[in-house]
């Protein structure tokens, strides 16, 4: 048996970057670090992968559920979202609503905007969620909504 390819999966951008720099990896899965809220992979990991031809799979695009339903107690990175992050997610949801788009659709499609991203990985727990995910991926997102959402991105240094 031979290995046709290999990579790394992590939610730590520094680990993924090191792996890309020090190995001949052809795939990286980054979880929760390239989303509407958390853009930590955007500034160095994704450009590095693009430059080296490393395919990127993005997981955790709903940030543990906050971007599916930004309600009090919703999780962000597996813990209850701090009030300030909840506020940002709610402002993003309102911007989406103003454009007739669900926050889920924008969150699921966001990573596909980067040239290095070859797949968005979701973990649906039911057939209904699979159907909803497919429907959300087929929603047309207006360019001006992306601009509105980009203007709401929180300070990445404050993220837990």
What does this structure look like?
It is a single chain. By secondary structure, the protein is an alpha/beta fold. It has a single domain (7-152), classed as Alpha-Beta Barrel (TIM Barrel). It has helices at 13-22, 45-52, 83-98, 103-109, 127-137, 143-150, and strands spanning 7-10, 27-31, 55-59, 75-76, 79-80, 117-121. The chain has a 4-stranded parallel sheet, with helices on one face. It has a two-stranded antiparallel ribbon with strand order 4-5. Helix 1 links the parallel strand 1 (7-10) and strand 2 (27-31). Helix 1 runs parallel beside helix 2 (45-52).
Descriptive terms for the model:
single chain, 160 residues, alpha/beta, TIM Barrel, four-stranded parallel beta sheet, two-stranded antiparallel ribbon, 6 strands, 38% helix, 14% strand
Fold topology:
Layout: E1 7-10, H1 13-22, E2 27-31, H2 45-52, E3 55-59, E4 75-76, E5 79-80, H3 83-98, H4 103-109, E6 117-121, H5 127-137, H6 143-150
Q: Structural class of the secondary structure composition?
A: alpha/beta
Query: For the record, what is the CATH homologous superfamily label?
Result: NADP-dependent oxidoreductase domain
Strand order of the largest sheet: 1-2-3-6
Main beta-sheet annotation? 4 strands, parallel
The SSE order reads: EHEHEEEHHEHH
CATH T-level topology: TIM Barrel
Cα Rg: 16 Å
The general outline is globular
Q: Span between N and C termini?
A: 42 Å
Mean of all residue-level pLDDT scores: 96
| Stretches with pLDDT under 50, minimum 5 residues | none
| Proportion of beta-strand residues | 5-15%
> What percentage of residues falls in helices of 4 or more residues?
25-40%
| Corresponding CATH architecture | Alpha-Beta Barrel
List the total number of helices: 6
């Amino acid at each position: 048996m031979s290995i046709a390819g290999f990579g790394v999966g992590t939610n730590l951008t520094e680990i993924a970057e090191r792996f890309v720099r020090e190995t001949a990896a052809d795939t990286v899965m980054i979880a929760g670090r390239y989303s509407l809220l958390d853009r930590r992979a955007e500034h160095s990991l994704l450009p590095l992968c693009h430059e080296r031809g490393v395919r990127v799979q993005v997981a955790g695009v709903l940030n543990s559920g906050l971007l599916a339903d930004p309600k009090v107690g919703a999780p962000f990175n597996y813990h209850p979202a701090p009030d300030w992050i909840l506020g940002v997610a709610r402002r993003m949801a309102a911007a989406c609503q103003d454009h007739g788009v669900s926050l889920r659709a924008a969150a699921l499609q966001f990573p596909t905007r980067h040239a290095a991203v070859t797949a968005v990985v979701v973990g649906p727990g039911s057939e209904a969620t699979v159907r909803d995910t497919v429907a959300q991926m087929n929603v047309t997102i207006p360019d001006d909504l992306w601009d509105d959402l980009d203007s709401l991105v929180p300070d990445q240094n404050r993220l837990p």
